[in-house]
UniProtKB/TrEMBL annotation:
Top-level taxonomy: Bacteria, Pseudomonadati, Pseudomonadota, Gammaproteobacteria, Oceanospirillales
Alphabetical list of Pfam families matching this protein: GerE
Gene Ontology molecular functions: DNA binding
UniProt-recorded name of the protein: PAS domain S-box-containing protein
Species in which this protein is naturally found: Reinekea marinisedimentorum
Coiled coil: 147-222
InterPro entries according to UniProt: PAS, PAS-like_dom_sf, Sig_transdc_resp-reg_C-effctor, Tscrpt_reg_LuxR_C, WH-like_DNA-bd_sf
Top-level lineage group: Bacteria
GO BP: any one term: regulation of DNA-templated transcription
Length: 344
């Protein structure tokens, strides 16, 4: 005997139209075992309801198992037992579209026996079984898929937040670096301006120093010219006149000092000498340099020989010659060795 067909395409599908209406369940139960086996082992929920009353006629094994019911228990289950919100029946809402177009697609939440909720995506089609309009719905459990999508969306959102945070941090760092670069550029520009200003000042100072050197040379030349033109002639006349020994010694000291004044190294300062020696010690040192003895110095300065020896001793001490067997006159004449009498 040929197996009855549940579906016929296109249009509405019929199952053994010659069977009486009250034999519908008996006809379905006598379907070939291999087709029942296929339907029950499909990973798709299948349910059959009356198209007008929406009373359930049957459901496959996967649907029972997924909702946690046995086949016997499932026959006693009412729609309100598995609908999360009985007042919002998506199949009832989709029925007008199914009756008009022959099919509809919708999502719905179903409650398991243990109270947990599953999300299903159903495709419902209008079929005719033995002259009775029925709705055959096939549904896919998309709970895990939605959970995975939610986790993915959460991970993406978290990643986006991290990217935004990193981007903001990078943007802040970039702005900070730009500001730092700008500050450094300003500092470099300011330093460049200061360098230019310093270079200009250095140039001006070099010009001033050169001018001072020129003026100094001119002053030195004037001093030399004045000494030779205004003083030397009179000293020559004095030396030719009748002078006693003391006067001649003084003339020698004057000539020696004038030579020091007009010497090429006249720029050496007298201040060091005056800061180290007393005026009388400077006089004694000058007379020692020109070769005068202690007795001659005493006569020229109207002082005792003991006083002159005391001054000579102080001079040697200040020159660091006390413990050295160095002739004082020889040392004074070696101007490069004198810390305080170079200009004497």
């Amino acid at each position: 005997m040929e197996n009855p067909k549940m579906y016929k395409k296109p249009g509405k599908e019929e199952v053994s139209p010659d069977l009486p209406k009250d034999a519908l369940f008996e006809t379905l139960s006598r379907l070939d075992e291999k087709y029942n086996l296929i339907l029950d082992n499909m990973d798709v929920a299948m349910t059959l309801v009356d198209a007008h009353s929406l009373s359930r006629l049957d459901g496959n094994f996967y649907f029972h198992k997924t909702l946690g019911y046995s086949s016997e228990e499932f026959h006693e289950v009412q729609p309100e037992d598995i609908l999360v919100n009985p007042e919002s029946n998506q199949l009832a809402e989709a029925r007008p579209e199914i009756l008009q177009t022959g099919q509809a697609r919708y999502r719905t939440q179903l409650k398991k026996k243990d109270g947990s909720v599953l999300e299903f995506l159903f495709v419902s089609r209008l079929v005719t079984i033995n002259g009775q309009d029925c709705i055959l719905s096939t549904g896919q459990n998309i709970t895990d898929q939605l959970k995975a999508e939610a986790e993915r969306d959460a991970a993406l959102e978290q990643l986006e937040n991290k990217v935004m945070e990193r981007t903001q941090a990078l943007s802040d760092k970039t702005r900070s670096l730009i500001q730092e670069v700008h500050k450094r550029q300003q500092a470099e520009q300011e330093l460049s301006r200061k360098n230019v200003s310093l270079e200009e000042m250095n140039t001006a100072l070099r010009v001033m120093l050169r001018k001072l050197d020129e003026e100094k040379s001119e002053i030195e030349e004037n001093i030399v010219a004045n000494v030779k033109g205004l003083i030397d002639p009179y000293l020559s006349q004095l030396k030719k006149s009748s002078l006693n020994e003391s006067q001649q010694a003084l003339i020698q000291v004057i000539e020696s000092n004038l030579k020091e004044v007009v010497a090429p190294n006249m720029h050496r300062m007298f201040n060091d000498a005056y800061s180290v020696f007393t005026p009388r010690e400077i006089q004694v040192a000058n007379l020692v340099k020109v070769g005068k003895s202690t007795k001659e110095i005493a006569g020229l300065l109207n002082a005792s020989t003991g006083t002159v020896e005391h001054h000579r001793k102080n001079i040697r001490k200040k020159l660091g010659l006390n413990a050295k067997g160095v002739n004082l006159r020889s040392y004074l004449l070696s101007k490069d060795n004198l810390p305080g009498l170079n200009a004497l």
